[in-house]
């Protein structure tokens, strides 16, 4: 599972281990959760 700071290789909707969701596109850097302002692990949950 991708963590904050890694590069997104598959566009889609991702959910952080904090429970918040964010969209990332291929080539984006996974950001910290913008709600929690902390590094999280992102799980892809949709296209
Ligand atoms: Zn969060």
Note down, in words, how this protein is organized.
The chain is mostly beta strands and 47 residues long. It has one domain (12-46). Helix content is 0%, strand content 30%. The protein contains no helices and three strands. The protein has strands at residues 12-16, 21-24, 42-46. A three-stranded antiparallel sheet has the order 2-1-3, with no helix packed on it. A hairpin with a 4-residue loop joins β1 and β2. The two termini are 16 Å apart. The mean pLDDT is 98. Bound molecules: zinc ion (ZN). The site of zinc ion has 6 residues, from loops.
Keywords:
single chain; binds zinc ion; 3-stranded antiparallel β-sheet; 47 residues; 30% strand; mainly beta
In short:
By secondary structure, the chain is mostly beta strands. Helix content is 0%, strand content 30%. The chain starts with 11 loop residues before the first strand and ends with a strand.
